[in-house]
Amino acid sequence: MHTGRIIKALSGFYYVEFNGALYQTRARGLFRKTEESPLVGDIVDFQIENVTDGYITKIHPRENELVRPTVANIDQVLITMSLKTPAFSFYLLDRFLAYVEAHDIEPVVVITKMDLADDDDLIDKIKDTYGAIYPVFFTSQDEMNNDLLNIFENKVTVLSGQSGVGKSSLLNTLLPELELKTDEISSALNRGKHTTRHVELVDIGGGLIADTPGFSTIEFTEIDKYNIKYCFKEFNDYQNQCKFRECMHINEPKCAVKEALQNGGIKQSRYDSYLAIHEEISNRKERY
């Protein structure tokens, strides 16, 4: 018996990496009974006759999983936002950050299209708002930020961000051998038709990255309104000091988060995003 990671899944076969080699396996029938399906990124036990003939016998418990792309055990999501075209949005970035936090994955912020920058105040505000909470990288089109290459070691990474921000371009710059078609094609695809293509984890900087840009829109359908406050990481520094243990940081008296907001410890834009997402989740619950 061996233990390895599923690197890709295709036509009922699972390709498992073990000791630098790739083994083609199938899932044992027992998974049909449990309605469990192996995912790319899963750590699995498997037995092999040879490199093209093996069986997965056990899926190890997952740290996390995403639906788009369908990958398990992700260490970090590169949330890609552009400075311009489309214009940078603090609220949209906060939605992505909260969504990634809700899945117990580390977010990394990547701001693209620095070559179009014409507003230093915006760049300073982005650094000021997020720099103390998350790693933030700035990239230009077709030019590599070498610091970015150092963040992949021993990690499984997924790329996400709104349509048109340059996710495919960024992947192409990071991994030229992928040759993902960018711009016209990706904007045509993003407008509706979901292309079915398999996800594969490919080597990058001593780690692995999913070879397809991930989710570009977000719905907080599975997230509870009582838990969304934990997805704003800097709130956690203060919420133990709130008078009420279950404080939602909205209408309660003696709220340490709102005090931090007054004192500048928490940014107004972050707090506004929290209120908007909390309200969205509350309204959704009431509709159902």
Automatic annotation (TrEMBL):
Transmembrane segments: none annotated. One of its GO terms (biological process) is ribosomal small subunit biogenesis. Pfam families: RsgA_GTPase, RsgA_N. Residues 72-216 form the EngC GTPase domain. Zn(2+) binds at residues 242, 247, 249, 255. Residues 63-218 form the CP-type G domain. Monomer. Associates with 30S ribosomal subunit, binds 16S rRNA. Belongs to the TRAFAC class YlqF/YawG GTPase family. RsgA subfamily. This is Small ribosomal subunit biogenesis GTPase RsgA. It comes from Aliicoccus persicus.
